[in-house]
């Protein structure tokens, strides 16, 4: 017998849109896999879609399109219909509602947060949001403070602050977004970010090699000084200290390679 929207006489459901599909579920539990079972399951899903739609609408105006929320709710409904066991004696709506709502909440958690936020903080955010909305109706329009939110939501002030910060983490602002309140306008968040300072890297490199330079033989120190601090050519250095240009070249290559290896390897200075 196909599922219908007619309620059984004398039975009150906690959900006004709950159809009577018990006989259909019992049939599904006994039917072998196949086209007939799939067709009956589809009719049961369609019978319960009004309830799934109602549950989805409870989460509208939270930054997600209502049609998308309804699709997520229908997915949860399909899972509930597929997994429900009528022989356990539990009403289907008692099993389906947590499944559908859980699917909707999972959708918000996994797809709509602008940045990764731990589940604990997401839960704090929800509690803070509810507490703030409830308090706003009793504080003459004044925004509740952290202590008031914490007391109302039965949490610590630190948890309330974490929840408030998470309220601003739900969506992110593009770095190209124009800053408000600027005098001449035309400035974006990207303009406020610092740039890499190459001078810092030079300081680090200089300090890393300073001690190792002092440990070099005196002649190699002198050659490095003439080449890199006085800017002399290899031929000029060779003439200055009385060796061949080829010898100067080999000494420079060997010394620089040794210093680079020691610095990169973190050898003892």
Shape: elongated
**Which series of helices and strands comes N to C?**
HHHHHHHHHHH
**What class, by secondary structure content?**
mainly alpha
Low-confidence stretches: 1-13
Total beta-strand segments: 0
Helical residue percent band: 55-70%
Determine the N-to-C terminus distance. Answer: 87 Å
Rg is 36 Å
The averaged pLDDT comes out at 79
SS summary, helix count: 11
Q: How would you characterize the largest beta sheet?
A: none
Amount of beta strand: under 5%
Kindly describe this structure.
The chain is mostly helical and 269 residues long. 61% of the residues lie in helices and 0% in strands. The longest helix has 23 residues, at 35-57. Mean pLDDT is 79; it is low at 1-13.
How is this fold's topology laid out?
Blueprint: H1 22-30, H2 35-57, H3 66-83, H4 92-111, H5 119-136, H6 146-153, H7 157-167, H8 198-214, H9 218-229, H10 234-241, H11 245-265
Helix pairs in contact: 2-3, 3-4, 5-6, 5-7, 6-7, 8-11, 10-11
């Amino acid at each position: 017998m196909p599922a219908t929207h007619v309620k059984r006489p004398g039975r009150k459901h906690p959900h006004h849109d709950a159809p009577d599909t018990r006989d259909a579920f019992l049939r599904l539990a006994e039917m072998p896999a196949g086209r007939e079972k799939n067709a009956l399951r589809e009719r049961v899903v369609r019978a319960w879609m009004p309830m799934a739609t109602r549950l989805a609408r409870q989460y509208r105006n939270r930054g997600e399109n209502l049609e998308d929320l309804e699709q997520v709710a229908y997915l949860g409904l399909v899972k509930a219909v597929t997994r429900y066991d009528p022989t356990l004696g539990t009403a289907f709506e008692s099993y389906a509602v947590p499944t559908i709502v859980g699917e909707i909440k999972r959708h918000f958690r996994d797809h709509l947060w602008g940045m990764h936020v731990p589940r604990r903080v997401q839960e704090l955010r929800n509690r803070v949001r509810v507490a703030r909305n409830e308090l706003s109706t009793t504080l003459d329009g004044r925004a509740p403070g952290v202590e008031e939110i914490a007391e109302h939501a039965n949490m610590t002030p630190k948890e309330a602050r974490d929840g408030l910060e998470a309220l601003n983490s739900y969506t992110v602002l593009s770095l190209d977004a124009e800053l408000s309140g600027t005098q001449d306008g035309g400035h974006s968040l990207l303009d406020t970010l610092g740039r890499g300072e190459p001078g810092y890297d030079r300081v680090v490199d200089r300090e890393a090699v300073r001690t190792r330079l002092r440990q070099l033989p005196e002649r190699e120190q002198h050659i490095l000084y003439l080449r890199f601090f006085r800017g002399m050519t290899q031929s000029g250095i060779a003439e200055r200290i009385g060796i061949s240009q080829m010898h100067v070249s080999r000494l420079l290559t060997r010394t620089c390679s040794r210093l680079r290896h020691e610095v990169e390897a973190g050898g003892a200075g």
